[in-house]
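Risk register update: the risk that structure generation would not scale has been downgraded. Supporting records follow, first protein first.
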Amino acid sequence: MTEPTGISYRIEKDSMGEGQIPDTVYYGIQTLRAVENFPISGLKPLPTYVDACVLIKKATAIANGELGCIPEDISQAIVRAADEVLNGQWRDQFVVDVYQAGAGTSHHMNVNEVLANRALELLGDKKGNYQRVNPNDHVNYGQSTNDVIPTAIRIGGLLALERSLYPALSNAIAALENKGQEFHNVIRSGRTHLQDAVPVRLGETFRAWAQILSEHMIRIETAAADLTLLGLGGSAAGTGLNTHPQYRFRVAEILSELIDQPLRPAPHLMAAMQSMAPFVNVSGALRNLAQDCVKISHDLRLLDSGPKTGFKEIQLPPVQPGSSIMPGKYNPVMAEMTSMVCFQVMGYDAAIALAAQAGQLELNVMMPLIAYDLIHSIEILGNTLAALTDRCIKGITANQTRCLAFAEGSLALVTALNPHIGYLNAAAVAKESLETGKSLRDIVLEKQLMTPEALAEVLNLEEMSRLPNHEST
């Protein structure tokens, strides 16, 4: 290799031989081999996934130092290096493509090498002097890719939920509830099969969406409880080979403190390392949320359609010009974006399901795909709901006049007449109204099917649209 002017290299060795590593980088020879082997997508590990892996390395260094498994000065140096990464340093050193060696060994060694080389510097030594701090013997003491990576997916999922999805989902629910209160007295025509239906309140439309999202929050939280059971300590195959007897308990305690979650060792480490069921469960809950978010985003687009030839019962806040050729056009872009993200989440869920069933014997080698797709799903859903809430839901206004006109003109109002004039008479009234353009009220009175007073009471839109039991005041 010809060395460019001004760049120095160090020689590193692994079980396959030697390699030249630029002295400016903190990763080592195993990372370099992975970069050369997997020029696939250009996608690098998600920051939250890096956090998860580094938190594990910090916790294991503390535990192994306390238990006398690695020297205390090396333990402290690894912890300091991990803290630097967690505080935002050296992020450009995690360079292995998402699509890589099965189980995630390449990314795992990338983390081990970066922390080992930075620990060496903190100890006053040079990068690459693995006789003093070794990526495998010290940073990775008592660990295997096979128990670290499934634990990292768990930690990464929990971090992403707490940082991104839960706050965004809570804010979306609150914003929808606020709109429900604001639009409580706005009556609109319900629609089923995209045809006229009985009147409903616009406020209850928004409250219904809030309730739907609230129920999804519960489902996701329930599914995420599985992520708190850790296979860490199982080592290569779940037997705990090369680990201290107290290691798995202590490292779970430390990780619990670091991320403020009730983590504990799984009852059967081998099972926790083999089965991807917890990730499938969480992904399924995310897919379920995504499906209803698509429905809500489509409803918003329909209710805002127009402005002259659609429903236009609500106005979504315009956030950018909508056309490169039609002046003055504004599109429901936040709702459109929401649907696209949700479709991606559904696709990720399918990929996770396929990857989860592709494990053999003591290991599932498809974990890098699961790690990326699951954490990315959580984060893009969270980011999407945050953007939709702030740049769309909070700014929605109601076109009360148009809503009421549609509600009063709906043929479905005839439904309320059924108990008073019978289904067949009501159907005849509706048919005549559609054919002649006369109002339902006029036809009923012309045919003397009801008195004016009784008809006014039955066709009271305020009462017809009132929900039972939980009506707001």
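Supporting record for the second protein:
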Amino acid sequence: MRKFMFLILISMLSQQGLAAQRIVVAGGSITDIVFALGAGENVVAVDTSSTSPVAATKLPKVGYYRDLAAEGVLSQHPELILALQGSGRPEVLTQLRNTGVQLNLYDKPTNINELFNLIAQLGQDLSQPSQAQRLINELKQALPPKAPPSPLRALFILSAGDRGVTVAGPETVPDLLFGYTGVRNLATAPGYKPFNREAMLVSSPDFLVAPSHVVYSLGGPEQFCQQSALALLPAAQQCRLLVMDSLISMGMTTRLPEAIAQLAAYREQSTL
């Protein structure tokens, strides 16, 4: 009788899709979605880019997703590894697969439809398709309509130092945020690229946006604005700077509506 009841319990857990899996996640966007799907209790370790939600930050770390070491991942005894494309070197991924551990790689989303597709795929892989569809519907309702273009111009600064400035252009999350809030992105080269100092001075952005990990690695907003590469910009001299959480400003996550709202609020403040 006990054996029969035990088999029933195992069957019920399997139908829920996440039985007793030990999951390691590499990639902040994936971690955010996995927890939003209610599967966080099965995650035993994450990478250092997984800064949301708070519960994820308290888990053991397996390094940065682009530089994974097989030993660190396997030390967590995972049954399933969920990782963004670009995680680890090819030989590391081969080593992980050779152990028999299931490894799922996912494309990094760069627009809203790709984010919805990633949520749906993770929902399927975690046997939680209904939760995934519910999350997609909630996000669709939470996303505001795009704001009309405003005269405000801005730059998203990924790095600023002696070697110059790197900014976010088209095909990046910051560019999507600018588009949603009606702010003109002065960077026109796709991806994260160096920005010519002379061109930056001529364009003269109304304000700057930067990820928190970059700003606070330099000592805070004031120190960031005083970087020599930015020193001649009026926006830097007056430190018209919006510091945004690194994950939500650079990664497509379920907190996208929050990121849009933050930038929209700063835009409104800048027009007063």
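Confidence is low (pLDDT under 50) at residues 1-17. On this basis the risk owner (M.S.) recommends closing the item.
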